[in-house]
Amino acid sequence: MNPYKEIIIELESELDLKGKKALQELNAFFNPKDFNVSLNDKTLLIKIHSLDFQLFSLIKNTIETDSELEPENILNKIEKSIDGIKSYGIKSGKRFYVDYNIERKVKNRKEKEGRRGKYYYAQNNTFTKENNEIPEQFENQIICGDSLFELQKLPNNCIDLVFTSPPYNFGLEYEDSDDDHNWDVYFKKLFRILDECIRVLKYGGRLIINVQPLFSDYIPSHHLISQHCIKRKMIWKGEVLWEKNNYNCKYTAWGSWKSPSSPYLKYTWEFVEIFCKGELKKTGEKDNIDISADEFKEWVVAKWSIAPEKKMKKYDHPAMFPENLVERVLKLFSYKDDIILDPFNGAGTTTAVSAKLGRRFLGMDISEQYCKTARDRLE
Ligand SMILES: C[S@@+](CC[C@H](N)C(=O)[O-])C[C@H]1O[C@@H](n2cnc3c(N)ncnc32)[C@H](O)[C@@H]1O
Fold this sequence. Notes:
The chain is of the alpha/beta class. It has two domains: about 5-95, no CATH class; about 120-379, 3-Layer(aba) Sandwich (Rossmann fold), CATH 3.40.50. It has twelve helices and 14 strands. The protein has helices at about 15-30, 55-60, 75-85, 110-115, 145-150, 185-200, 220-230, 295-300, 310-315, 325-335, 350-355, 370-379, and strands at about 5-10, 35-40, 45-50, 50, 90, 95, 140-145, 160-165, 200-210, 235-245, 270-275, 305, 340, 360-365. It has an eight-stranded mixed beta sheet, sandwiched between helices. Strands 1-3-2 form a three-stranded antiparallel beta sheet. Helix 6 (about 185-200) links the parallel strand 8 (about 160-165) and strand 9. Helix 10 packs across helix 11. The site of S-adenosylmethionine (SAM) has 20 residues, from helix 5 and strand 14.
């Protein structure tokens, strides 16, 4: 077996002396058994067994390059092509490009899946497979009202995808709704709304919920919400960890300072839970797929680094999610022209992005002010 992952780069012109020197310097930093680059005429051969990619980037920046004949910095080209390899294992900070998955390969996977019972908890559901068109009066609308009652006006099985971020019950200052209920009251209402979402979803449709659990009250909302959906026989497709990287977030509490008695854990991320109604596969026209190969490769790795929304002041809403999060969800899990519902639409991020990406939409929010903002954003 070849002990290396190999990458070949065909250069447009021969490397000049400066470029060759840069390659030599790069090779000198690494054990040739782990990583080396060789040049034959205009062909670069990169052989990688294992590599600390962060270290590689640091070293690359210290080497002088800018070869005259090769217009793009050759080291950037090498870095980009290595970073393009998405399959590798990680051990002690190093990426391993060969043999990393040998132990983990499962034999007779299909047979085992069949025997063990794939998503056993969602078998014997009573979902009807007959889907309906959404009535015209609901298409591309922002509806102001309590979504528990507004959703009841929709027929069964008429929505392709629900993407939403419910009020978290943190005590935020929303216009026209209270965000500080006893937890049992909060979940009772939320679950009734989620049940309505499940009812209006098409067979094969998706329910995608962004949740930030309230850790200081020790309420694992993302688990409780997932448990409820599973109880309703939805198939858990997976979970995205939305890394917001907000290390300077407001948490100043340490719990028990410098003592194991009760340290307080801090989080810089939120969750996105993904459920399917009836089946994992969603049908759609090939022409209505709008995700690129690069986006697909990057986004199926379920940790998304996206900064929190910066325009909350502008839109006068305290808990918006960013457009980029919605864009990823819609392109990865829906087709163009699908019907997207957000029952807690707030300042209308889901509806604005749906419109931009050629999806049809329906947004609901209890606040007249937020509904107006959502309508304005569609202009
Ligand atoms: C976390 S925010 C959603 C923000 C939205 N994702 C955005 O980017 O603007 C939750 C929203 O739910 C709304 N809300 C709370 N209870 C509701 C209910 N029963 N029906 C409809 N909307 C409700 C609040 O007004 C708030 O705007």
